[in-house]
């Protein structure tokens, strides 16, 4: 694939995956905020932090200025209503915990690929691009859980950051081998989601979990 067509396909794939990630991460932030009994402002705020936090840190680290959601109005237009979708989950009869886990898994899988792609497009070294993918996929959720007084997935024994690392690594590696950008992204995202999904379904952890504590010490 020649350079111009590669760039176009890569940009289009990244746009699709980024917007999909914004939707599901904003929803996961809204659900977590509702679990913490926050009002509508809290739901929207946590939804925004969850969806935009990882990408913001990535952009700052690789020197993209202004960060994406400052220069482009679409992320905000997507994040705000997506956060409010969390208010409908309870009324639809779904388990908030199950919905949060699976929505968060989709967001992680999507953002690990999108984040790595943005870094590659900025001419960042492939290994660092993989790390940027992991940061993009995990940092927003980390901030979300801290704001809601919950120990973040990434700091527990969950198979979470490992799944993001797998997805970003596969994506970057396949790109460097010359595979189609959209197909590379799909494979990377699918691998990350599969690893996280298997871990959720079979309750797998990095090591045996001796405690079910999900809140910070001293909290209820």
From TrEMBL:
Q: Where in the cell is it found?
A: Cell membrane
Q: Where are the transmembrane segments?
A: 6-28, 40-61, 73-89, 101-121, 127-147, 159-177, 183-202
Protein name in UniProt: Uncharacterized membrane protein YeiH
Residue ranges occupied by any Glycine transporter domain in the UniProt entry: 16-89, 102-174
Keyword hit for Metal-binding: no
For this UniProt record, the keywords arranged alphabetically read as follows: Cell membrane, Membrane, Transmembrane, Transmembrane helix
UniProt source species: Cohaesibacter gelatinilyticus
- Domain of life from the UniProt record: Bacteria
* An annotated GO cellular component: plasma membrane
Known InterPro entries for this protein?
Answer: Gly_transporter
What is its membrane topology? Multi-pass membrane protein
The UniProt similarity line reads:
Belongs to the UPF0126 family.
Q: Which residues form a coiled coil?
A: none
């Amino acid at each position: 694939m020649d350079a111009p067509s590669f760039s176009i396909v890569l940009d289009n794939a990244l746009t699709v995956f980024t917007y999909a990630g914004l939707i599901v991460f904003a929803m996961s932030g809204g659900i977590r905020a509702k679990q913490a009994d926050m009002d509508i402002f809290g739901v929207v705020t946590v939804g925004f932090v969850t969806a935009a936090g990882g990408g913001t840190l990535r952009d700052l680290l690789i020197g993209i200025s202004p960060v994406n959601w400052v220069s482009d109005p679409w992320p905000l237009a997507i994040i705000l209503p997506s956060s409010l979708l969390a208010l409908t989950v309870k009324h639809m009869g779904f388990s908030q915990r199950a919905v949060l886990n699976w929505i968060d898994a989709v967001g992680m899988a999507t953002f690990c690929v999108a984040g790595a792609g943005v870094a590659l497009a900025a001419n960042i070294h492939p290994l660092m691009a993989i790390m940027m993918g992991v940061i993009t996929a995990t940092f927003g959720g980390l901030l979300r859980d801290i704001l809601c007084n919950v120990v973040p997935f990434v700091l527990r024994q969950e198979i979470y950051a490992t799944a993001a690392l797998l997805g970003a690594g596969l994506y970057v590696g396949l790109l460097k081998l010359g595979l189609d950008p959209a197909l590379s992204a799909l494979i990377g995202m699918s691998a990350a989601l599969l690893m996280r999904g298997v871990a959720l379904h079979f309750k797998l952890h990095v090591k045996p979990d001796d405690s079910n504590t999900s809140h910070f010490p001293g909290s209820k």
